[in-house]
Amino acid sequence: MNTPMSSSLEDILSIAGAILGVVGLVATLYAARAVRLVRARCLSVEAGLATMRREVEHMASISMKTGRRVRRIEHDYSGVADRVDQVEQRGPTRCFVQAIDQARRGADVGTLESRFGLSEGEAQLVARLHGHKKIA
């Protein structure tokens, strides 16, 4: 037998169950939406990481090429500092005056280079302009 009290309790429990079911359904829908948003964000982040990885690889490649170029330039111009030191040590005109004098006395290009610190081109020029003419 149903008493009025038991019927009212059953109604309350039914309403509470229905409310809990609706709340559970709403919570499930919000959770599913949140999962979709997180999944979309993860895909976006992964795509960004892939792009960044490609850019970093490209920059590393450029860096390696630049490093090789710098080493080649350093190698090609390693003697420039020594040559500048030689030029600074010899004085502007004194060594040329002495080299011209030695060329007139018959000094060869090698002697002019080693004794006066002239480059090969400078020594050849001094020898041609001021050295003894060779008769063929």
Measured between the Cα atoms of the first and last residue, the distance is 146 Å
Helix coverage percent: over 70%
Mean model confidence by pLDDT? 86
Secondary-structure element order, as H and E?
A: HHHHH
Low confidence ranges: none
Percentage beta strand = under 5%
Structural classification: mainly alpha
What do these coordinates show?
The chain has 2 domains: 1-78; 80-130, no CATH class. The longest helix has 73 residues, at 4-76. The protein is built from 5 helices and no strands. It has helices spanning 4-76, 80-90, 94-104, 109-116, 120-130. The chain is mostly helical and 136 residues long.
Characteristic key phrases:
single chain, 136 residues, 5 helices, rod-shaped
Entry summary:
By secondary structure, the protein is an all-alpha fold. The protein is built from five helices and no strands.
What is the element layout, followed by pairings?
Layout: H1 4-76, H2 80-90, H3 94-104, H4 109-116, H5 120-130
